[in-house]
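Write out the 3D structure for:
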Amino acid sequence: MIYLDNAATTPVLPEVAQDMFDVLTTTFGNPSSIHSYGRAAGKVVRDARKTIATILDVPVRNLIFTSGGSEANNQAIIGYALANRDKGNHILTTAIEHHSVLHAVEYLRDRHGFEVTFVKPHADGSFTADLIADALRDDTILVSTMYANNETGQILPIAEISQLLTTHQAVYHVDAVQVMGKIAVEPVALGIDFLSASAHKFHGPKGVGFLYHSDLKFDNLIHGGDQEEGRRAGTENIHSIVGMARALAISAENLETNFDKVTALKTQLLSELQTLDFYTNHFGEAVMPHVLNLGFPGVNQDLLLMKLDLQGVAISTGSACTAGAIEPSHVLAAVYGDDDIKLKESVRVSLSDMTTSDEIHGFIKILTDILQG
């Protein structure tokens, strides 16, 4: 089996799984309880929060544990917009965002009457801060962009967008799901007001993530208790939080080594592809090496994925959240248009530091046999 769909989810590290098992079997108290079992559980949560806060260089009180990146995105976008409508009625995002952002702003537009602008990339697929600057209005209260695209790996100009917002009332939300644990991210230094992350993208468990916030006024999405500094009700998912913190700590300790490894794997993959007829959907100068979007002229993507799957190879056509649904990539459509043939022949190959050179070689051999068979 060859797994090359790490942008959808990554394997859990053995050390992470062991920490989670230990917590499940020894620390079962409710962190809100005042007895010794509850206090022990509370300490575990506090320690995990401190670990993550230290890595991000943010105050511990500014982290909210969530069920993942989608909840974190919804909490930031919907929570802030509804609580600050007196400041304006306009939200600004991009046309290449994850659906958890796109659907959140569409909900605000359709159900609450907000005006939303979806900014498209330049004709060549690049995305510059001036695109955001040109779309800003006096009544814009929120700008939301991803740090790196989940389908192409394109890195957006986060620092430049943040800088242009220093003289504007709009706050800045960044979906950092595809970069967390892969590059250093410090929200305060970058001028980010909200930042979302999900553990299962950096070898942690599914169903847990976090939202960084900069002491802003925003409505809660989940009500019923005083957990998370009163920001999110519900008993904490302790073992998953511990697993997330451990996974992020391991990733943070190996950022440069892992990044260089993935870069080398990408170079190998592109080199071994040279005997085949293919193109890359590569947009902008800065990209994450973890994600490659490849097109094979005249080859139907769904059929190719099925044939690869039968040979034990897992890749994707794009966002995992639309896996199984026959719909074209909205990311590629934002660049090429809705009717371009590239939307039907492009696939995503995504790597992690756990991917091996032998897996890349094996994938290319199987792919070559399929395309030339």
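The chain has 13 helices and twelve strands.
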